[in-house]
Amino acid sequence: MKQVIAVLASVCLSVQINAQYALKGTVTNGENEPLPGAHVVLQDTYLQTTTDTKGNFVFSGIKGSCTLRISYIGYETVTFKLDITDNEEMTIVLKESAVMSEAVIVSAIRANHNTPTTFTTIGKEALSRKNLGLDLPYLLSNEPSVVATSDAGTGVGYTSLRIRGSDITRINVTINGIPLNDPESHAVYWVDIPDFASSVNSLQLQRGVGSSTNGAGAFGASMNLETNSIQSKPFSILETSFGSFNTWKTSFQGGTGLMKDHWYLEGRASAIGSDGYVDRASSALNSYFFQGGYRNDKTLIKAITFGGNEKTYQAWYGIDAFTMKTDRTFNWAGAVFENDGTMWFYKNQTDNYKQNHYQLHVSRQVAQHLSINLSGHYTRGKGYYEEYRQDESFGDYGLPVIYFGNDSVTSTDLIRRRWLDNHYYGITFSMKSNFKNTEFIVGGAWNKYDRARHYGEIIWAEFASDSHPGDKYYDNSAEKDDANLFMKVAWTPMKPLTFYGDMQYRYIDYSVDGVESHLQPVHIEKRFYFANPKAGMIYETRAGSLYASYSIAHREPIRDDYIDAVAGEEPEPETLGNLEIGLRKTDPGFHYGFNYYLMNYMNQLILTGAINDDGAYIRKNAGKSYRTGIELSGGFRINTLLTADGNLSLSSNKTDYRASNDEGVIIEYKGSDISFSPRITGGLQVSLFPVKNFEASWMLHYVGRQYLDNTGNKALQLDNYMVNNLLFSYLISSSKLPDIEFSLLINNLFNSLYESNGYVYYNEPYYYPQAGTNFLAGMRVRL
User: Fold this and answer.
1) What structural domains and CATH numbers belong to the chain?
2) Which has the least CB within 10 A, 84, 204, 509, 547?
3) What pLDDT is recorded for position 2?
4) Residues pairing with 581 in the sheet
5) Who wins on pLDDT, 535 or 588?
6) What per-residue confidence (pLDDT) applies to 673?
7) Residues 245, 229: contact at Cβ < 8 Å?
8) Is the model's pLDDT at 6 over the cut of 50?
9) What pTM was computed for the model?
10) What letters, b where the CB count within 10 A reaches 16 and e where it falls short, cover 392-410?
11) How far apart are CA 334 and CA 582, in angstroms?
């Protein structure tokens, strides 16, 4: 490997010697005002940047013919053919777009340079470069305060992420402004929409409460995804990759481009498979994405459907400390023990789920500075997980004892399926106006979780008692209405200063009736009314944009909080007060950001470290608790051969927590560390030789020690770990031939043996080990 890198270095160095010119530019609007944050790309290369607060950009180390593309939301994209034979300086004036931009669909919930909150926006190019089959959490793992984890240990199958120590149930996720979080569990199951990153045009992460959005409140972060934008010309893309653990991906997408200047169609189909690092932790995933629509100078109509079908072998059992030392990849799921001591594994111990999403968006510019957006959506989900269970009591399934004369049979081996069958639909809307020095947004949503059934079936039993095929041993249904209305105002009384105000009102009506999986009656009838105000300011200085904001947010308990609660401890809704103070700046050749945050909670529902029968974490209200810390980020181009980007998060996460010991005595833990909240996280990416057609990137990710519960017990913790990855990319671009890109991703270069997640069972730690050194190699062909 060292010899390969040395050869590549020498080749790229020789190329750079002959490429010593700089291209500088300034991007403005028709009134000669700079446009900060404009996206500037040298097409068919790996070189791209964004303009600074003065609209400036710069490229170094280029020579010869190239194509420059500049885009900015609300303005027409421009493209220039250039021939660089010396240092060049230019000014580019962008015209306001004469056609509706798709960005209007998500603009009501996104932060911009005038929003005093902490956020990162990631474009399609940055996502696609690492998109060789890994789930979206792993494509975001190097962002500030992000920790990604995978049950199978490979980043394929069941994956999730935490931001500032908050798990996915506390991260608000939307697709084109439509809530993606499950209405009952608040979780996001990326496995249900595999390879969705291939259909994402841009993604914004807002850490903390952020600006108002649709769906459940953001208590750790919010993530909004904008799907692919219209391509003006026909295109087709074939992607294929393969790698360790028999991991592979095949994806094809194509589009018509604009037909008759107004109509378009686009589609994608993907298949992903993996054996997993953990034994039998296989994944067989399929997904699709189709969109079509119409647009003119005032109107945009966009219909979208996407979804997926997943079958994964269960890998959520984890392993104990002793087994991890002797067999890191062992998987208890499906284990069946015979009387003679032998063991075998049930082949169909799998999770099976299918989810289809449908969206319709209509946007209209009704005046020069006034636009509206109306969206409708419907999601259909249905699936089950199947498992072999040994020596199960008939009483646990509502079945009578079997008698053979004087002998009785009270238990049996059986195979059961636990089903979830649901419908989710609703509408969202927004109106945005800009008048002189004021930006005004009104938006909201009404969403209905309808006919959501949870039920269980016994599909086989050694002794069936009086059960029949299709009998349901438990059955309950849920409904949830979730409505919100928000208003945002950004007022700039003088050029460097902007005041920001945001108010959201949210209403929830949630009910559950029936019998739950332990054959206990369940009846939940709850209504919540939340007011969530936010206020802040941002001031432009020579050092950058200085901002400060304070937000209040509320969040309702989830289904499992009620069902898993100890008798007499009904869960209460949470309240969060979030202070954000920061400084950010982007200039040609460098950028930096500093942020201090304080998140004070009342009744925070924190993870206890234990899991329930479905593998979900059990939560309970804690006493006084807070999360506070600083987040540092920055990047710069050292010279024409080297660029570096990095981030470092230092935090303190404390709670007053009560738990019972083995004797049932309640013990109070004052100021203990909150579970799954590392004090230190950090990332570093160094790109070597970013010449026209080749790039080599070294990516480092560090996660500090995490506790598995809230008692501060050092025996119940995840050790700190550091992972190093290498990414090589080479692009063959020609006007006469298809563009072909080759990629090689080497994960965990130094074979670090680490665990990214775990839980506590009877006061013993269980871990999810992650893969050692592994690779993915891919090819992308674009016509």
Assistant:
1) 1-97 (2.60.40.1120), 225-782 (2.40.170.20)
2) 509
3) 45
4) 548, 596
5) 535
6) 96
7) no
8) no
9) 0.90
10) bebeebebeeeeeeeeeee
11) 50
